[in-house]
Automatic annotation (TrEMBL):
Residues 27-85 form the Transposase IS4-like domain. One of its GO terms (biological process) is DNA transposition. GO terms for molecular function: DNA binding; transposase activity. It comes from Longimicrobium terrae. It comes from the Bacteria. This is Transposase IS4-like domain-containing protein. Residues 123-174 are annotated as: Disordered. It holds the Pfam family DDE_Tnp_1.
Amino acid sequence: MGEPIPVRVIEYRVSGGGENIRIITSILDPEAAPAQELATLYHERWEFETALDEFKTHLRGARTVLRSQTPELVRQEVYGILLAHFALRGLMHEAALRGGRDPDRISFTHTVNVVRRTLPGFAALPPSGVDAAPRSRAGRDSGRGRRRASPPEGKAGREAQAEPLPRPAPERAV
């Protein structure tokens, strides 16, 4: 066995809860790292761990891997997940404020489930908003209605979905 490492044990009780929490650190000098500061940092660390869990497990799905094949597209996919997380957290914050609740007490998993159930209803909305959305199929002229082209199948379809948009060509003076 190796040599023993001296440690400092900080024990405190969370207000509102009956649980004692112990933090063990190798920072022995209380002036270099006051107990109150370490306790605060410990809880911030767990907020970060919780956010990682939200990304990896609840937002993407426990067994879902990133689909992108290039570093640029992986980066794009990760940014998309971050934006979705930010939007969900914003929605949770707004709902908590409207309901007079603490935003930390709103369940992320429940919010994801509610949005997943609700989102398909908005898929048919045009970018111009609700007023421009057709009310029913009966009011459409069937001769002029547009049909969506079905996406290609197989490898070509997967590649087409993962392909980034081309950058515009630089303008040349003639």
